[in-house]
Amino acid sequence: MITYSNPRLTSEEVDHYKREGYVIPKLKVFSDEKFSALSAYFDDKLADWPKDERPEQMDTPHFADPKLNEWALAPEVVDLVEPLLGPDIILFSTHFICKPQGDGRRVPWHEDSAYWRRMLNPMEVATVWLAIDPSTVKNGCMYVIPQTHNTGQKGFSEYEGVDTSKSVFDSEIVKRHRKDELAVPCELERNQCSLHDARTQHGSPPNTSDMRRCGWTLRFIPAATKLSEDYHDRHLMYLARGKNVLNQPLADPTKSYSHINELRRKLGVKAH
Predict the structure, then answer these.
(1) 96 SS3 class
(2) pLDDT digit string, tens, across residues 49-66
(3) Which of 43, 85, 163, 172 could form a disulfide with 222 if both were Cys (CB 3.0 to 4.6 A apart)?
C-alpha cells in the first residue's frame, strides 16, 4: 500500500472521487496570505488582458508567466492530487475561466478528455478547480454529472455545435448522452476547490449576476501518461513531483515561454 507524506484528501474523499468522478474537499487550498497574493496577481493580469478578448479564455497563462508556477506547483496543490495519481506527477495545463458579472458566458456540457483525446495516453487527468472568487449557483458555478467518468461514453461522447456568442466553447455533448437532472452544483468559497476526472461531464450556466466568477483550473497527470509527440512544439509540461518516468520533454518552471502561446494563437489552438 502506498502512503503519502502529507495527504490533503481523506480516504472517504478519495473514494468519492474514484466513484463519482469528482470531490469537493472541505479545506482552504492556500494560507490566507498566499491566496490573497494569488488573487491580487490575477487581478493585475486581468487588468492587462486585451479588451477585445474574452476573459473566459485565459488558457495556459503559466507558459508565458512563470510566476504562476509558484502557486500551480505548490505542495498545497500537488498534495491534493498525489493520492489520486500516485507519486510521480506532471502539471499538464492551467486555465483561468473568468466570467464577468452580467454577461459571463456559459460553459457547455463537455468532457475535458474530448479535447485531449489525441494528446494523452492513457487518459488520466485530475483537475483542481480553484475558486478565485466565490462560485455559486447565482453567478454560474460549475455543475458535474456524477459517475459519467466510468459509465456511458466514458469521456468520449458525441458533440454538436452551439452558439459561440453565448458559449465559451463551440460544441456541447448531445442531449441523449447526458442526464442533466443528475447534475450537482460545485459551490465554493474563495480559496476552496473541487477536483474532477477528465472524463466527468461538466459545464456551467452563464453569469448574469452582479458578481464576477473566476476559477483557475490546474490539470495534473501521472508521469506515466504520455503526451503525443505531435504536440511537443505547442504544449509544455512541468514536473510537479517525483520522477519523469517516461523521460518526456519538460519545461523549466522559472522560464517564460511566451512564444508557445503566440504559436498556439496562430494555430488556432482551442482554449481549454
Answers:
(1) strand
(2) 998 899 998 999 999 999
(3) 85
C-alpha cell, 244: 519523469
Residue at 4 is within a domain: no
Q: Which domain holds residue 150?
A: 11-267
How far apart are the C-alpha atoms of 239 and 104, rounded to whole Å?
Answer: 33
Mean pLDDT by 10 residues, the chain (272 residues): 74 98 97 98 96 92 98 98 97 97 97 96 98 98 97 94 94 97 98 98 98 98 98 97 98 97 90 70
Note whether residue 110 is domain-resident: yes
* Side-chain half-sphere CA neighbours of 78 within 13 A: 22
Query: Is there a domain that residue 3 lies in?
Result: no
Find where cell 518516468 sits: 245
pLDDT at 7: 82
| Residue 224 within any structural domain of the chain | yes
d(CA 54, CA 2): 43
| C-alpha to C-alpha distance for 34 and 206, rounded to whole angstroms | 29
Contact 101, 210 (CB under 8 A): yes
Cell of 215: 476559477
C-alpha cell at 234: 505547442
Q: How far apart are CA 126 and CA 242, in angstroms?
A: 17
Distance CA 53, CA 83 (A): 37
**pLDDT for the residue numbered 62:** 98
Q: Residue 16 is part of a domain; what is its CATH number? A: 2.60.120.620
What is the value of pTM for the model shown? 0.96
Q: How far apart are CA 239 and CA 248, in angstroms?
A: 10
